[in-house]
Amino acid sequence: MSKAARKPGTPVAGTQTGLVVAGFGRHCLVETDSGSRVICHPRGKKNQAVVGDRIRWLPSEDEGTIEEIDERRNLFYRQDELRTKSFAANLDQVLILIAAEPEFSESQLTRALIAASAARISPVIALNKSDLIEPFGRAWTKLAPYRAMGYTVLGLAIKPKDTGQSADEAATSPQKNALMTLMAGKKTLVLGPSGAGKSSLTNLLVPQARVLTAEISQALNSGKHTTTSTTLYWIDAARTTALIDSPGFQEFGLNHVEPMQLVNCMPDLERHAKHCKFYNCSHLHEPGCGVSAHVGPSSGEDSISPNRYRLYRELFAELSQTRY
Predict the structure, then answer these.
(1) DSSP secondary structure code for residue 296 in this structure
(2) What domains lie within the chain, and their CATH numbers?
(3) Is the pLDDT of residue 306 over 60?
(4) Main-chain phi, psi angles of 17, to 5 degrees
(5) What is the dihedral of CA 117, 176, 143, 263, to 10 degrees?
(6) Comparison of pLDDT for 117 and 215, the residue scoring more
(7) What separation in angstroms does the CA of 32 have from each of 114, 177, 218?
(8) Residue 171 in this model has a pLDDT that exceeds 50
(9) DSSP H or E segment with residue 321
(10) What pTM was estimated for this model as a whole?
């Protein structure tokens, strides 16, 4: 996928630099270096630019044409047998937002974490609805293996009513302060299934998000809420901290990840893989496998949970089938 972005060559005469901040179909909304925004179209039938891309664009009346996409640091995307869905490029971190109720899917969480690792982007897990004591307790326990792996895991209780706070109340919100500290100076993609609370989180951190959403939809003439696409919002006036809102998802394909790469994207398995007898061990059935030997609590403090190992086996089988 990263081949879609070319290394900058000799700039086309008259082009300007800009940042893609929203997109829908073949249209992009590009922010210029001065902070103004303009609709741009690709030169060709397919739009390969995504939110977060630095581009060179050529003005044409009140719109523009995308002439070149700068080389990307990274690209976060999912891929199944039918299509590839790109979320955003040049990210500093991915905040994976899940909820205590309804119970989150560990498979979806694992897939998102693997995609982040494959793209070399730091992930953060945020568990919403901490005000629901019993469901949150169960979900927090379910996340124990992820905390043990070294992932940052936050507990949140963001509700739609929080977005109705006064400016002073929102500014002093402990949750907002914790999130701002985590995101300061970074471009953060907020990712999660529908219903996890992404819109509420966006509206808490970016109180003017609803207005900006309406403006972007009108500018792109999409007639649709931007939860159907990915949108970048600046949190600070200096434009150093950005939240990137993405559509909710129910499936997260990993067809772009090689089966033998999986173990390197799962920290609890990777730490034991170096002890395997064979360098090309699949960690499924080989003798002397360092991974399978550490599955279950009887293998000690550094053990791999049976559920995590089951997810690995299922993903390995799924990704192997797609290649034949």
Answers:
(1) S
(2) 2-69 (2.40.50.140), 75-245 (3.40.50.300), 259-321 (1.10.40.50)
(3) yes
(4) -90, 155
(5) 0
(6) 117
(7) 33, 29, 19
(8) no
(9) helix 306-321
(10) 0.87
